[in-house]
Design goal:
The structure is a single chain. This protein has a domain of about 100 residues: P-loop containing nucleotide triphosphate hydrolases (Rossmann fold, 3-Layer(aba) Sandwich), CATH 3.40.50.300. It is about 30% helix and about 25% strand. The two termini are about 15 Å apart. By secondary structure, it is α/β, with parallel strands linked by helices. About 35% of the residues are buried. The longest helix is centred in the last third of the chain and has 17 residues.
């Protein structure tokens, strides 16, 4: 669990994730509306060296950003009700970049076999505060989690 006191710390965590991400890493971002999933993705892009404007792909489902250190595949599956298995997401999950899946918990059986889930919770009293729980599903996700925590703790 990582406690984030403000937007600046949220951006710092996201930048770290982008800096330590490797090809075929998969992140699933879950949390209520307004919990910070897209904000986190914008910071991840910054950490990857992507300076293009990041927009939520709510209606397009997938946006690809290829000008960073590794490609970023930004997905928002909130509006995908059926047929997630037919979207061809495996190509991204097993590709040469980092897949960030907002609302990925809705994919169920179409999720990658190996992924790190970041569960974002808003503080009820302070809109700036967040708690992020990191749950791993697979060995590559465990390694990603450890890289994130190592840098987070080092940078204090």
């Amino acid at each position: 669990m990582i406690a984030l006191e403000n937007l600046k710390q949220t951006e710092k965590l996201a930048t770290i994730i982008g800096e330590v991400a490797q090809p075929r890493d998969n992140l699933v971002l879950t949390g209520d509306l307004g919990a910070g999933k897209t904000t986190l993705t914008k910071g991840i892009a910054k950490g990857l060296g992507i300076d293009q404007m990041i927009k939520s792909p709510t209606y397009t489902i997938i946006r690809e950003y290829t000008q960073g250190r590794i490609p970023l595949y930004h997905m928002d599956v909130y509006r995908v009700e059926h047929g997630a298995a037919d979207l061809g997401l495996d190509e991204y999950f097993e590709g040469d970049g980092l897949s960030v899946i907002e609302w990925g918990n809705l994919l169920e059986d179409a999720l990658p076999e190996d992924y790190l889930e970041l569960i974002l919770e808003k503080d009820r009293q302070d809109e700036q505060k967040r708690v992020v729980h990191l749950e791993t599903f697979g060995p590559q996700a465990e390694q990603l989690k450890q890289r994130i925590l190592d840098v987070w703790e080092r940078q204090g």
